[in-house]
């Protein structure tokens, strides 16, 4: 029985006036749906959106406030590594750089400290958005400072003051990504605005940090084909869209497809875009050779674009010079270029999905896309189980793990998707785990994007289905332990190295400490539940699981030892 106050029976519901500072789309479409009044919306409310287009960045207006505790920043202990922002599953904690003027205008009592290294002209501030934080605690757990710079504390005493500070940092100070080169280090990258934020993923999710990092690197020119699964649910469940835009209005274009054809869907996106860019190339070549209205300056900019169209930085540079000139020119060629201006900058095409898609149902399509040689990037968030659809076993599930359709433990070895893809010889492949090696993931993402051909990144993603002892607040630490004990291995296969006479295979993880393997799998309910139900079978399968991990690792060692002849 739950006792209630008698006066609750006479509560009068008051109509809350709409906040006119919120965008029209949020007020008229998103807010009614979030208020469980979506059935009151009329068909006419969606005029102009007949193609299903949805505004980006709506999740930022939800302010769920679900965390009981949020990180409190101990400014004096902070070493300014920015690792907390890198691993945050919901992009709810970020570093900010303040000029002297901005620091003076900050809310009273805001802690900050002088930036270090190349940032000494700025004040440095780590800021959490209290109403967007899910309270997982990964940021505090991975803080490498000798005395923790982040401590999880109750939200109530912090809410009002930290809310004001967040609004000031996010809306007034903004993101100074150009102060340092974001492609040089994990620390630098965190000064770039994440274009994937405040999703509805589980607290401590192991998948979302990978997506967030990719949007920080390439989000202003990204297109994403997302397979159905966890990543499609937290990535685009109306009315919540965590993919957002920067101050220039640039951000990822996202669409969902089904298990069986998502890879082909993403490849189709890329082919369609490149056909339009081919049209731009034809228009510019004809204009350079024969247009009497185009000035020498315009033709020079067109030539610059033609030479660098397949390079993101060069196409950006050329587009910035060409577009203002083309908008002023009256010739038909320039008018067509302006119409196709969205395709001037080289796109970054990504295909997202989980292991249920990549290893199982969508594997045929994935293999087709990788074999095609098309310049697309694939991110597989490997939870080793069908996470969103209810925890069924997949071909990624290791021996001994309990899942639906494997209630007495998986009996066959985990499929090595990475090596299968690497066997083509012209596919870039990387196996990563953020919590185990921040830089390896960072370098793999850059190499995959820069590789002129298909790339596949397989990312170890701890999941609530694993039943991790310690909870999802230690998901990053779990990734580290998985690599240390040999359960997961870090490696990269880069075909570009082979053209340079080098071994394309690089084993990035150190030799495992196999004595930790059984302790690791013993820290997750998906394994320990088998020991309780079938103790004898569990011992056999757990030994087989370790043997399989050693077998796989030995194969990687052999690949890394190959000497390539000049």
Helix and strand topology:
Elements: H1 24-34, E1 69-73, H2 83-87, E2 93-98, H3 100-105, E3 113-114, E4 123-128, H4 138-142, E5 150-154, H5 156-173, H6 186-189, H7 208-218, E6 222-227, H8 230-236, E7 253-257, H9 262-290, H10 296-308, H11 312-328, H12 332-339, E8 348-354, H13 355-361, H14 363-372, E9 377-382, H15 417-422, E10 428-432, H16 438-450, E11 455-460, H17 475-484, E12 491-493, H18 495-499, E13 505-507, H19 517-521, H20 525-533, H21 535-561
Explain what you see.
The model has no long low-confidence stretch (mean pLDDT 95). Helix 20 packs across helix 21. Strands 7-6-8-9-11-10-12-13 form an 8-stranded mixed beta sheet, sandwiched between helices. The protein has 566 residues and is an alpha/beta fold. The chain has helices at 24-34, 83-87, 100-105, 138-142, 156-173, 186-189, 208-218, 230-236, 262-290, 296-308, 312-328, 332-339, 355-361, 363-372, 417-422, 438-450, 475-484, 495-499, 517-521, 525-533, 535-561, and strands at 69-73, 93-98, 113-114, 123-128, 150-154, 222-227, 253-257, 348-354, 377-382, 428-432, 455-460, 491-493, 505-507. It is built from 21 helices and 13 strands. Helices cover 40% and strands 11% of the residues.
């Amino acid at each position: 029985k739950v006792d209630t106050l008698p006066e609750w029976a006479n509560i009068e519901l008051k109509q809350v006036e709409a906040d006119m500072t919120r965008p029209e789309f949020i007020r008229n479409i998103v807010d009614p749906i979030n208020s469980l009044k979506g059935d009151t919306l009329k068909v006419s409310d969606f005029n102009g959106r007949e193609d299903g287009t949805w505004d980006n960045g709506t999740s930022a207006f939800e302010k769920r406030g679900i965390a009981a505790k949020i990180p409190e920043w101990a400014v004096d202990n902070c070493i300014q590594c920015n690792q907390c922002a890198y691993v945050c599953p919901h992009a709810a904690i970020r570093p900010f750089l303040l000029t002297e003027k901005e620091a003076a205008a900050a809310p009273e009592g805001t802690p900050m400290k002088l930036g270090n290294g190349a940032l000494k002209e700025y004040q440095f501030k780590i800021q959490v958005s209290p109403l967007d934080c899910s309270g997982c605690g990964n940021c505090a757990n991975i803080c490498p400072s000798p005395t923790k710079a982040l401590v999880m504390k109750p939200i109530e005493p912090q809410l009002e003051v930290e809310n004001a500070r967040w609004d000031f940092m996010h809306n007034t100070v903004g993101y100074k990504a150009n102060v340092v080169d974001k492609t040089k280090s994990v620390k630098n990258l965190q000064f770039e605005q994440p274009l994937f934020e405040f999703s509805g993923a589980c607290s401590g999710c192991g998948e979302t940090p990978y997506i967030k990092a990719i949007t920080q690197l390439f989000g202003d020119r990204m297109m994403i084909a997302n397979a159905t699964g966890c990543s499609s649910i937290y990535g685009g469940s109306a009315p919540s869209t965590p993919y957002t835009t920067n101050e220039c209005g640039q951000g990822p274009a996202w669409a969902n497809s089904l298990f069986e054809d998502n890879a082909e869907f993403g490849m189709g996106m890329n082919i369609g875009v490149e056909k339009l860019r081919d049209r731009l190339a034809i228009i510019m070549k004809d204009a350079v050779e024969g247009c009497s209205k185009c000035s020498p300056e315009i033709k020079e900019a067109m030539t610059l674009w033609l030479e660098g169209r397949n390079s993101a930085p060069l196409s950006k540079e050329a587009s910035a010079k060409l577009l203002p000139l083309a908008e002023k020119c009256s010739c038909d060629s320039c008018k067509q270029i302006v119409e196709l201006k969205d395709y001037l900058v080289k796109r970054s095409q990504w295909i997202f999905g989980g292991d249920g898609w990549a290893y199982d149902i969508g594997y045929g399509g994935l293999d087709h896309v990788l074999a095609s040689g098309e310049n697309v990037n694939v991110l597989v968030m490997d939870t080793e189980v069908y996470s969103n659809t209810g925890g069924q076993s997949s071909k990624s599930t290791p021996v001994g793990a309990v899942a639906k359709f494997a209630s007495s433990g998986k009996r066959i070895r985990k499929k090595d998707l990475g090596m299968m893809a690497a066997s083509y010889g012209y596919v870039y492949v990387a196996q990563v785990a953020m919590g185990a090696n921040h830089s390896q993931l960072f370098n793999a993402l850059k190499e995959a994007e820069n590789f002129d051909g298909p790339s596949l990144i397989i990312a170890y993603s701890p999941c609530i289905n694993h039943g991790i002892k310690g909870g999802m607040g230690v998901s990053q630490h779990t990734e580290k332990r998985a690599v240390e004990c040999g359960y997961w291995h870090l490696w990269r296969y880069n075909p570009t190295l082979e053209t340079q006479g080098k071994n394309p295979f690089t084993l990035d993880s150190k030799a495992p400490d196999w004595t930790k393997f059984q302790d690791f799998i013993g820290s997750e309910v998906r394994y320990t539940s088998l020991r309780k139900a079938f103790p004898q079978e569990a011992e056999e399968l757990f030994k087989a699981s370790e043997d399989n991990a050693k077998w796989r690792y030995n194969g990687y060692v052999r690949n890394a030892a190959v000497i390539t002849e000049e």
